[in-house]
From TrEMBL:
Highest taxon in the source lineage: Bacteria
A UniProt-annotated Pfam family: Acyl-CoA_dh_M
PANTHER family given in the database record: ACYL-COA DEHYDROGENASE, ISOVALERYL-COA DEHYDROGENASE, MITOCHONDRIAL-RELATED
Assigned keywords, A-Z: FAD, Flavoprotein, Oxidoreductase
Matches recorded under InterPro entries: Acyl-CoA_DH_CS, Acyl-CoA_Oxase/DH_mid-dom, Acyl-CoA_Oxase/DH_mid-dom_sf, AcylCo_DH-like_C, AcylCo_DH/oxidase_C, AcylCoA_DH/ox_N, AcylCoA_DH/ox_N_sf, AcylCoA_DH/oxidase_NM_dom_sf
Domain named Acyl-CoA dehydrogenase/oxidase N-terminal: residues: 7-123
Cofactor(s) needed by this chain: FAD
Protein name: Acyl-CoA dehydrogenase family protein
Annotated ranges, domain Acyl-CoA dehydrogenase/oxidase C-terminal: 240-391
Similarity comment: family membership: Belongs to the acyl-CoA dehydrogenase family.
Residue ranges of every copy of the Acyl-CoA oxidase/dehydrogenase middle domain listed in the record: 128-228
Length: 396
């Protein structure tokens, strides 16, 4: 049993950290303040290979290039390192791969992959995944968006909410879940399918960006579809396979969000350590005060635990373990890591005292960015429900 990263993973982590320190950290506060999405950064991330870690070489990716096969673990490393510096950039990568590339890579046909993946991998484009709706979030099966097939075209009507990377200048498409019928008349259970909608398609409207609490430099919009027509060939995978598809996508996404949370908790730990050694009260550094020292010690424990759970889940994914096993590990990692990250930002703000409430210090931004981690890719309550079900409990 080994708890060490491979030599290749260590080299890769160093490369991403250097990129984050040089290209992201100096600008993160300004991007946050101005609610600026750094579109210029996406091609640079593409050149670094960050969008292609889990994509086959035929589409420009580097999947299979690591001797130990740890492609998904490498993606988590990249998300953690970017998230350590700026959560907005970290979620841009996480969503760009997990929600933009992954549906097409996992379920698309040869033509769909060839049409979209090369540009997405290169960072010339971004894609999004339209699942959440104004009245269908955790209960994704309650999707109201509808798509009707006639004369070789899908006509889509409905709305989506909180969709990441959906309105950038380089967004090429959004994969949308929609009701395309019913599984059976007796059950009334909706048939849900996934359909690719190219940006600029008539009837596809991207609404103004949300005024969010955090993730100010991340792109997030509501989407409206009004008699939006796309070719029948834009169906992703089989008709009625959308529910199964997005469950698989969410499992992977939960591990990625866990990595993002680890990056945030690590950043809080580093900021607290630095400040506690420099800030003095009553003639001593505050780090010499037991209350502060113990709080930071507990934070260090939480970071290690969150990282261990996250990379265990990523390893299970890389090892091709059964989906049920990956799903349980993903839910556990996501639940613990995101709640630990929220606690970490509260601890960091407390250690900084009044300065923690001032935007001049990064812990204020961390505090605002943290809460959404417990919501996106399935709330903490949903994770507990998934874990309980996997334990055999008859939870409703």
């Amino acid at each position: 049993m080994s708890f060490e990263l491979s030599a290749d993973h260590e080299v890769f982590r160093k490369v991403v950290r250097e990129f984050a320190e040089a290209e992201v950290r100096p600008h993160a506060a300004e991007w946050d303040r101005k609610h600026h999405f750094p579109v210029h950064l996406i091609p640079k991330m593409g050149e670094l290979g960050l969008f292609g870690l889990v994509v086959d070489p035929e589409y420009g990716g580097s999947r299979g290039s690591l001797p130990d096969g740890g492609d998904f673990s490498a993606l988590c490393l990249a998300i953690e390192e970017l998230g350590r510096v700026d959560q907005s950039v970290g979620i841009t990568l996480s969503a760009g791969v997990g929600l933009g590339i992954n549906p097409i890579l996992s379920f698309g046909d040869a033509q769909q992959k060839q049409t979209y993946l090369p540009d997405l991998v290169a960072g010339r484009a971004l894609a999004a995944f339209g699942l959440t709706e104004p009245e269908a979030g955790s209960d994704a099966g309650a999707t109201r968006t509808r798509a009707e097939l006639a004369d070789g075209e899908w006509t889509i009507n409905g709305a989506k909410a909180f969709i990441t990377n959906s309105g950038t200048p380089i967004t090429s498409c959004v994969t949308v879940t929609a009701r395309t019928g019913v599984v059976s008349e007796s059950s009334g259970r909706p048939e849900i399918s996934a359909i690719i909608v190219a940006s600029g398609t008539p009837g596809f409207e991207v609404q103004p960006p949300y005024d969010k609490l955090g993730w100010h430099a991340s792109d997030t919009h509501g989407l409206v579809f009004s008699d939006c027509r796309v070719p029948e060939s834009n169906l992703l995978g089989g008709r009625g396979a959308g529910f199964r598809q997005f469950l698989s996508i969410l499992d992977d996404g939960r591990i990625a969000i866990s990595a993002l949370a680890v990056g945030l908790a690590q950043a809080c730990l580093e900021e607290c350590l630095s400040y506690a050694k420099q800030r003095s009260t009553f003639g001593k550094p505050i780090g010499a005060r037991q209350a502060v020292a113990f709080a930071i010690s507990d934070l260090a424990v939480a970071v290690e635990a969150a990282r261990g759970l996250t990379y265990k889940a990523a390893w299970l994914k890389d090892a091709g373990r059964p989906r049920s096993e990956v799903s349980q590990a993903a839910a556990i990692a996501k639940l613990y890591s995101t709640e630990a990250a929220v606690t970490a930002t509260r601890v960091a703000t407390q250690v900084f005292g009044g300065y923690g409430f001032i935007e001049e210090y990064p812990v204020a931004r961390f505090y605002r960015d943290a809460k959404i981690l417990e919501v996106g890719e399935g709330t903490s309550e949903v994770q507990r429900m998934v874990i309980a079900r996997n334990l055999g409990l008859p939870v409703e």
